[in-house]
Amino acid sequence: MEFNKIYCMDCLEGMKLIKDNEIDVIITSPPYNIGINYNKYDDNKSDDEYLAWIEEIGKELNRILKKDGSFFLNMGYTCSNPYIAWEVAFRLRKYFKLQNVIHWIKSIAIQKEDVGNYPNILGDIAVGHYKPVNSDRYLSNMHEYIFHFTKTGNVKLNKLAIGVPYQDKSNIKRFNRKNDLRDRGNTWFIPYETIQSKNKERPHPATFPSKLAEMCIKLHGVEKTKLVLDPFMGLGNTAIACAKLGVNFIGFEIDDYYCDIAKKRLDETIKKNTKKTVKSDTTTNACITTSLDNYIQSNL
Asked: pTM surpassing 0.90?
């Protein structure tokens, strides 16, 4: 298959065209089967039908993922069906080891009194975006899961590639660190960008920010990531992340409407990154130029 291309087709059909052990990183978010109103797809299957479908996809993903590859699966849930994300994870244990469970935090409230004398927190804060739950029984969902699957459970990661600075700088010397970075851990605060019109700027009802995909690739290791797959490309955020990082990708999206939007958004990213590359002589940007050139050539 050609790299750096979004294919408008069913992922199960598309993955048959990918060679065994060809993919370094898989990042995706399938339908959750919670009644989301997609443009085409019916998100109201029976549990048995849905989980059987997920298992079929998992089998193909296992075939095409490299032995030392990473599979990042974003799953949400509803208050009335909180088990669905874990039912998917348990169904996939037939083909993968669950190496890490990451919590994608969309919104969080922090009270000043709970954090002590942190100089960067001057008062109570509430940041991020979430969909309020109109209920006197359920709390609003502020997070989703990112299940990090591998074939062996022993894949080495580049944790400091997404590391954060120490709040207490004395810890750098105390823990004999070479630089001011520590492990971010498994809670990732990644808010959605603020938009004015959901229909115009984010017409897909369930998508993750491109930064989420960037962080997954960086965690696995950009230098060892030759090819990324997203079998449910949606609005193209995984492809956009790959374009920014200079990594090749393959994407599938069954809905022509979403597919067209994804391609347009990717083209816009390519143009922006190409302009940045012209102004920079760094090796990283040179890699991005090569990847983007490949994409442009494959779509002429």
From this structure: no
